[in-house]
Hints:
Blueprint: E1 12-18, E2 22-29, E3 32-39, E4 41-45, E5 51-53, E6 58-61, E7 65-72, E8 79-86, H1 88-95, E9 108-110, H2 112-115, H3 121-128, H4 135-151, H5 164-173, H6 182-188, H7 193-201, H8 207-225, H9 230-236, H10 242-253
Antiparallel strand pairs: 1-8, 2-7, 3-6, 3-8, 4-5, 4-7, 6-9
Helix pairs in contact: 1-4, 5-8, 6-7, 8-10, 9-10
Amino acid sequence: xxxxxxxxxxxxxxxxxxxTTATFADxxxxxxxxxxxxxxxxxxxxxxxxxxxxxGDLLVFPAGSIVTMExxxxxxxxxxxxxxxxxxxxxxxxxxDCPAAKAADHVQVLKADPFRxxxxxxxxxxTRDHPSLPMVLREHRLLEPLIWLRENxxxxxxxxxxxxxxxxxxxxxxxxxxxxxASDVARQMAMSEATLRRWLGTTGQGFSKILMxxxxxxxxxxxxxxxxxxxxxxxxxxxxxPSHFSDAFRKxxxxxxxxxxxxxxx
Length: 266
């Protein structure tokens, strides 16, 4: 599968596959994200209760979510989902006149019965598979799932004021292979390194951890959505060697990168 080539202000579409059940803690979703579960299930660990999306369900994550999720395979079938990430501009076009107080700040699940969210998937696939579509038509088609959500009582809002962590991650994501240092980021943000570190201190995460998490989470996404070799992913995400990437990935997610694509032997 090829990784979608999207501009920052465009809707991004990802076909996600995973061969082994695994849990991923504290993932950061900068944009509003829809997960259409096509095979297996997705469990989201919440502060008060867990949510589970089964085959045929749709999970809606508001912009800026930090979540722990488990993608679950079923018998000999891989976990498979269609992921759609919407920029704030798309959310504003559909939900701009909705009262901010009604906007959900938590993950929501729309069940296969009665909502039938997978009926939307062919529209998304057709749009993705025809890149020659006029941009106006493409944008209109990809807004249809948001219109459908609104008609079914879901209210969303563009991401609020970006957090320090979010701003730093967005900068790092522009070039993951760059050997980022705190001083580089501080200079890009027109502040001293000391100010940057104090600023990030409010998030509970230091610069080194934010940098590592950004690289590893992007690596996870590439493992799930492309067929790139693991060695290529390692270098693209800023790791000096594939073994360094594999060790850091296993430490963070308690699973080897290759197990995302190949079922572990029992």
